[in-house]
Amino acid sequence: MERRVALITGGARGIGKAIAEKFAKNGYDLVLNYVSDNTNLEEIQNEFKEYNVEVLLEKADVSNFEQCENMVKAAIEKFGRIDTLVNNAGVTRDNLLMRMKEEDFDKVISINLKGTFNMTKLVTPYMMKKREGRIVSISSVVGVVGNAGQSNYAASKAGIIGFTKSVAKELASRNILANCVAPGFIATDMTSVLSDKVKENINAQIPLKRMGTAEEIANAVYFLGGEENTYITGQTLNIDGGMI
Ligand code: NAP
Q1: In a domain, 209, yes or no
Q2: Among 43, 114, 163, 211, which is 20 to 30 Å from 139 by CA?
Q3: Is residue 244 assigned to a domain?
Q4: Which CATH number do you get for residue 114?
Q5: pTM for this predicted structure
Q6: With left for phi above 0 and alpha for psi between -120 and 50, is residue 6 left, alpha or beta?
Q7: How far is the CA of 1 from the centre of ligand 1 (A)?
Q8: Domain assignment present for 243
Q9: Which active-site residues does the annotation give?
Q10: pLDDT tens-digit profile of 166-194?
Q11: Which residues pair with 182 in a beta bridge?
Q12: Quick check: 176 and 127 in contact, CB under 8 A?
């Protein structure tokens, strides 16, 4: 039997890697995208050996349409299909509006939001042909409620929600389901830069009194992006320990 395939942007570390592991545990072959030059490809291949699935590692900057196009072509050449797309790659460039540089606004929008557009546009023709597909994009609670110092990031993450609701409507007739998850504070490299004091303050504001784990996000992404989801589309699931 042919195995299903999940393509995960930013899948070599953090939340993306936990998502990749969840899909691998469920028998999916993987296309893992990364952008950093210091990514240890051999180590990642070795880590996934225990799941007995095939892993294609593809370098591409998701904000660059041509690089995304080459990545999707390579995925189709190797596997012939993409069943699930997870738009996970994302960055922050935080600052108060008064101090935010134009390039920091553009950077965050082009990776987080345009990257989601690039990948969704490029993958959906293959899903349309199969008349089946699932897309899960990683938004953020910040995109739902806003956050001082993150206007660029909030705009990108709110944009992902609006984009997802729209493509869910466009693609429903082809049985392609598109949803978002909106994580709260999750313990990864992205939040490890925060001081202990800031982390303490954050934990105090979370009803469950702790940051979430990448695995807790991965479980929800698999719920929405795995084959058992056949009737949820256009939704945003908040995974935030009760924050909002
Ligand atoms: P992270 O540890 O900082 O990892 C960021 C990921 O994005 C890495 O895999 C990185 O690839 C990839 N990436 C960055 N720029 C890219 C580009 N131009 N093209 C392709 N890939 C790129 O972040 P994380 O915490 O795992 O976050 C994953 C997603 O969850 C992001 O969308 C983030 O906004 C969202 N999120 C995180 C939190 C949180 O508290 N951590 C909360 C809400 C939402 P490389 O490994 O190659 O650098």
Answers
A1: yes
A2: 43
A3: no
A4: 3.40.50.720
A5: 0.98
A6: beta
A7: 33
A8: no
A9: 153
A10: 999 999 999 999 999 999 999 999 899 99
A11: 238
A12: yes
Task: State the distance from the centre of ligand 1 to the C-alpha of 188, rounded, in angstroms.
Answer: 9
In short, whether 8's Cβ falls inside 6 Å of ligand 1 is: no
Distance CA 24, CA 215 (A): 13
State the distance from the centre of ligand 1 to the C-alpha of 88, rounded, in angstroms.
6
Q: Is the Cβ–Cβ distance between 236 and 179 less than 8 Å?
A: yes
Do residues 91 and 147 lie in contact, with contact meaning Cβ atoms separated by under 8 Å? no
At 206, which amino acid appears? I
- Give the domain extent around 129: 5-238
> Would you state the structure tokens that stand for residue 216, as one six-digit string?
């807790």
pLDDT digits (tens, 9 = 90+) for 15-38: 999 999 999 999 999 999 999 999
**Position 93 in a domain:** yes
